[in-house]
Design goal:
Strand content: 15-25%
CATH superfamily of the largest domain: Argininosuccinate synthetase, chain A, domain 2
Structural class: alpha+beta
Number of strands: 8
Number of domains: 3
Shape: globular
Radius of gyration: 23 Å
Number of helices: 6
CATH class of the largest domain: Alpha Beta
CATH architecture of the largest domain: Alpha-Beta Complex
Order of helices and strands: EEEEHEEHHHEEHH
Strand order of the largest sheet: 4-3-2-7-8
Low-confidence stretches: none
Largest sheet: 5 strands, antiparallel
Helix content: 25-40%
Length: 223
């Protein structure tokens, strides 16, 4: 229900995709001309409600597949490096997954620190690599699970998106208690942040590079 594989290596480079191969997807050109609003609610990084209605993942994902799919969302057409390192063109449809992952990434942007977000990109890539290559029971995968579970404790909130002809457009975000977004401090319009502080901060941040330049000058190394 998360992602449906269609081609499995049997499709040519420029072979057109017929409309009848899709289970959930309506091709964007044939999708409705009227957009549809959807609200997703997350708790600890997991979607727990659709349009305000609490439901389990096993119910939420299939329902969202139908909603997002009819608006042209979910088409994946990629080159894939298989386990044997041989490339193939692969076709998938994953409407609910595309919506959920976009909203989740946006929530992580609000609720996780910069370092957590950067490190999680590495973790996500390695996790996907292990699972794709059939190493679900590798000890490292279990270790990565622990980091993901811990980091996701702060990923909460509700987000509204507009679905329209293959596009997922965020239209409304709430402000969960676990968010790190405080416009009253960060905004240039706010009195809580003095822009003059930036001068000294920039000076301190630049000191390591000033020292590197001094060393290179002694060694005759050109930048």
């Amino acid at each position: 229900m998360w992602c449906r594989s269609i081609a499995s290596g049997a499709i040519d480079l420029n072979q057109p995709l017929p409309d009848d191969i899709w289970m959930w997807l309506t091709p964007p050109v044939k999708a409705p001309a009227t957009p549809e609003q959807v609200e997703l609610t997350f708790e600890a990084g997991v979607p727990v409600a659709l349009n305000g209605q609490k439901m389990k993942l096993g119910e939420l994902i299939p329902r969202l597949n139908m909603i997002a799919g009819r608006h042209g969302i979910g088409l994946i057409d990629v080159f894939e490096d298989g386990i044997m390192d041989l490339k193939s063109r692969e076709i998938y449809e994953a409407p609910a997954a595309q919506v959920i992952l976009k909203v989740k990434k946006d929530l992580e942007g609000a609720c996780l620190t910069k370092d957590e977000r950067q490190f999680k990109k590495i973790v996500d890539a390695k996790w996907a690599y292990l699972v794709y290559h059939g190493e679900w029971f590798h000890p490292l995968k279990k270790d990565l699970d622990a980091f993901i579970a811990e980091s996701q404790k702060m990923v909460n909130g509700s987000t509204e998106v507009k679905l329209y002809k293959g596009n997922i457009i965020i239209t409304k975000r709430d402000q969960p208690k676990t968010s790190l977004f405080y416009p009253e401090i960060r905004s240039i319009k706010a009195a809580g942040f003095d822009q003059r502080w930036c001068a000294n901060a920039a000076k301190v941040r630049g000191l390591p590079f000033e020292l590197l330049a001094k060393r290179n000058q002694k060694l005759g190394i050109e930048d």
